[in-house]
Amino acid sequence: MLFGSNLIEAKTLDINWAEKYQTKNYISYTLAYDLNETINTLSNRKWTKDKKSFNTFKYANNAYWAKLQIHNSSNTKKRYYLKAENQFTYKIDYYLVKNKQIVQHIEDGVISKNHHRQFNTNHMLFPLSLNANEEVSVYFKIRNYNKININFTLVSKDYLLDYYQSYNLLEGIFFGGMLLMMLYNFFLYFLLHMRAYIYYVAYVFWISVYFLAVFGFSERYFESYCYLFYLSSGAFFIFLTLFVQSILNLKKKLPKIHKYLNLFIFSFILMTLLNIYVLEHQLFVYAQILFNIFFALVSSFVLIIIASTYYLAYLKNDAIASFYAVVWSIIAIIGLLLPLQYLNILQLAIPSDYIFQFLILLESLLFSFILAYKINLLENEKKEQERLLVQQNKLASMGEVISMIAHQWRQPLSEINGIILNMDIDYRKKQLEKEKFTKYLDNIENTTQYMSQTINDFIDYFKHTKEKEEFTLLELIKGTLNIISSNHNKAISIHYVKPLDVTLLSYRSELIQALLIVLNNAIDACSQTQESKPSEINIQTKISKNHIIISIQDNGHGIADEIKEKIYDPYFTTKHKSQGTGLGLYILKMIMEEKIQGKIEISSSNSGTICNLFIPKNVIL
Length: 621
What we know:
Elements: E1 12-15, E2 20-22, E3 27-31, E4 64-72, E5 78-84, E6 91-98, E7 101-108, E8 124-130, E9 135-143, E10 152-156, H1 157-192, H2 195-214, H3 225-247, H4 250-253, H5 255-280, H6 284-314, H7 319-335, H8 337-342, H9 352-396, H10 398-428, H11 434-462, E11 469-472, H12 473-484, E12 492-496, E13 503-506, H13 508-527, E14 535-543, E15 547-554, H14 584-595, E16 599-605, E17 608-616
Parallel strand pairs: 1-4, 12-14
Antiparallel strand pairs: 2-10, 3-4, 4-9, 5-8, 5-10, 6-7, 6-9, 11-13, 14-15, 15-17, 16-17
Helix pairs in contact: 1-2, 1-9, 2-3, 2-9, 3-5, 5-6, 6-7, 7-9, 9-14, 10-11, 11-12, 12-13, 13-14
């Protein structure tokens, strides 16, 4: 006998022409005393409109029954489906009863997936056929460790066809977007070798696996997909923590918070293993306890993360943290809806899983933009470091330059001293006529002008202004040779054909430094050749279709073939470390390509080396 006289009848759901019906207000519940009991044992059972009386730890290992009365009030046969959104049902038994006889029994859930679901859907679907004016009873025996309410929706076939078209499109967009974010950041990891990117890839991967489990897709490939849900939920929190630690550099900026987050990582690992264990042994009482602990743990974790980002954003002026603070605040607020719904504290018309899924995709897109912004910051930081490197390279040779200035001034100072001595002798002999006096003054003026020009040349070299200046090629080459003239071996001849008569608008200091690097390398190469061979360096200028070319050619020993590919590498040098830093050609390439927007070409053989500096033609005034 299926029903007893003391059975409380529930309100009947009348269906007619609508394609969708909500069943929440028509379902009644009762506790299952035994996991194996069937509806034949439900006589004299008390039914209630909610599960509060048995939704406690005491009955956590019990199943419960849900009953629904449905009446077809139309004059035609109807076929509907009871659709359940929630995927975390451990096991559910569906019974369709007509005239007090069971006409259909279907098992579904985590441990007993129905492999013959209609539409090959990821949701649980239970078919329901009603003849004209027929009334049926539907029973569900549900075993669900935390007693989450499972809202069944009664829908028609046409509704499902339309629903799954939209559903599959949206899910395709979501998982496709997540896949693109993974590939994009995976590529950035190999490009930049920053750990934050690989942590983010792992985070996106595991959160995608989480949603595969949430929406039932993983059921097609894994029998016990609930374990996959717990594994993924723990894993994505772990990699999210590693990503936060890395991208915000918490180990350096907030070392105590970094240590606290390490404790959270350990806790997530432990909780994941415990959850899998208790589900494997069907210890639903402990599963409920672990779920509540995990909820509290995640809440604390989220508060620490958000507080850290706001602290770094507004007290430490961290631009990256300010972006994350806003994004995570929104995600956290919506994310709290999930456990609140799972705990039956909050009921939403739209399942929070879908809202959270949309926000996660939005978060992934925003995070990718933020990571791209991070690249931009790193690029700007790299450029600033390179600028400082160029300037430091100049300052590193300060002692040498001071020696060069002293050498440059020694002779003109001696000349001035000699002129003054001759003036004094002529004055004492009363032979200092006006014409001779004027000649002495002219000589002194010419000498001081030379000294002044020397100072200007060195000032031009040490400038680090970002403004472009007007200068001629002749001024550029003569100024550079003036700096280097007192420091190179006089046995090495430096010749230059009168440069092109053009005026440039460019960075004079950087171009002087570029020429000095090339000339110093040429002088070093010539200094190592045999003494019987005359050493020469020739400077020429020419113009091509798109560039002005300054060509420096020496007849030194050349560059060995085995090191040609390494000459632009920073800190690579063939000299003793006391004679060179190995930064010269690296800085030269950086100046010509990044500052001047030109290029450099070096060709070498046993007979010498030719270095061509290409300056864009558009700098000509």
